[in-house]
Specification:
Elements: E1 3-6, E2 9-13, E3 21-24, H1 36-39, E4 46-49, H2 65-78, E5 84-89, H3 91-102, E6 107-113, H4 123-129, H5 132-135, H6 139-146, H7 153-165, H8 168-180, E7 194-199, H9 207-216, E8 221-225, H10 232-235, H11 237-255
Parallel strand pairs: 3-4, 3-5, 5-6, 6-7, 7-8
Antiparallel strand pairs: 1-2, 2-4
C-alpha cells in the first residue's frame, strides 16, 4: 500500500466504504507498529498515520499529546474525513482519548490498545531517551519491556531496529508528553462506543490501566489477549484484528 503525505503527515489509506478507521501509533513508533492485518482491515477505509517526526513524516515531533491530536485533526480535514473511529496504541491511545474529549463530534468510536488514561514514564526511560549516546543502547531494554517473554525473535529484531531508526529527540519528546498526560478524572465524559484491548502480559501499561478505562468510560468493554505484551497488535495481530473488526461492525450497525 503506497504512502502519501497530507497536512505534513505521511500515511497510508486503504480506501473503502463506511466509517473510516484512523490508526495512531505509540511513542517512538511508526505506522508499521500496526500490522498489515489492521492497516488493510477488510471492507473498511483504514488510514494509518506516521505522527510528526516519525517514519515518513518530516520533523519536528510534538511535545504534548494535545499538539499531536491537533495535527491528526489537520490530516483528517485534509483528507475530507469528518467523523471517524480512532484506534490508538499507547501514546496513540492518549491522542485518541484527547480527540474524544476535545473534539467529540469527530470521534464516532474508540479502540484503546495497550494504553491508559494516565501514562507516567519511568525516569530511566526519560533519561535514556534524552541522551543520544544511551538511546541506541537502550533498544534491547525497551524490547524486553515492550514484548512478552517468548515473543518471536524476528519480531524482537524488528522492534529493536525500529527503535534504533528513530530520532532520539522525537522519542524523548513523546515520552515527555506521555508523562504529562492525565485524563483519568474526565473519562466519564466520553460518550462514544469504546473497545479496550490489552495484552495480559503487558508490563508497560499493565492490565489495571485497561481495567480503569473499562470501569470509568460508560459502556466500555475490555478484550484481554493471553500471552501478549505491550505490543499486542504485533504479537497477536489476528486476535486484535478480529476484535476490532467485530467492534466496528457493531458501531456501523448502530449508526444505520
Amino acid at each position: 500500500m503506497a504512502g502519501h503525505v497530507a497536512a505534513g503527515l505521511h500515511h497510508t489509506d486503504s480506501g473503502g466504504p463506511g466509517l473510516p478507521l484512523v490508526l495512531l501509533h505509540g511513542a517512538g513508533g511508526t505506522l508499521r507498529h500496526w500490522p498489515a492485518e489492521l492497516r488493510a482491515l477488510p471492507g473498511r477505509r483504514v488510514i494509518a498515520v506516521d505522527l510528526g517526526g516519525h517514519g515518513g513524516s518530516p520533523p519536528p515531533g510534538q511535545r504534548s499529546i494535545g499538539a499531536y491530536a491537533r495535527s491528526v485533526l489537520g490530516l483528517c480535514d485534509a483528507l475530507g474525513v469528518g467523523a471517524a473511529a480512532f484506534a490508538g496504541h499507547s501514546m496513540g491511545g492518549a491522542i485518541a482519548l484527547t480527540l474524544a474529549l476535545e473534539a467529540p463530534a469527530r470521534v464516532a468510536a474508540l479502540a484503546l490498545v495497550g494504553t491508559g488514561a494516565r501514562l507516567r514514564v519511568a525516569q530511566a526511560i526519560l533519561e535514556a531517551t534524552g541522551d543520544p549516546e544511551r538511546y541506541l543502547a537502550f533498544a534491547d531494554v525497551s524490547a524486553d519491556f515492550a514484548l512478552a517473554e517468548g515473543a518471536p525473535p524476528e519480531l524482537r529484531r524488528e522492534f529493536v531496529e525500529g527503535w534504533r531508526a528513530g530520532q532520539p529527540a522525537v522519542t524523548h519528546g513523546d515520552f515527555a508528553a506521555c508523562n504529562e498526560f492525565d485524563v483519568l478524572a474526565r473519562l466519564a465524559e466520553i460518550r462514544c462506543p469504546v473497545l479496550v484491548i490489552c495484552g495480559a502480559a503487558d508490563r508497560l501499561t499493565p492490565l489495571k490501566y485497561s481495567e480503569a478505562l473499562r470501569d470509568r468510560i460508560p459502556g466500555a468493554r475490555l478484550e484481554k489477549v493471553a500471552g501478549a505484551g505491550h505490543m499486542v497488535q504485533l504479537e497477536a495481530p489476528g486476535a486484535v484484528a478480529s476484535a476490532l473488526g467485530a467492534f466496528l461492525s457493531e458501531v456501523d450497525s448502530a449508526m444505520r
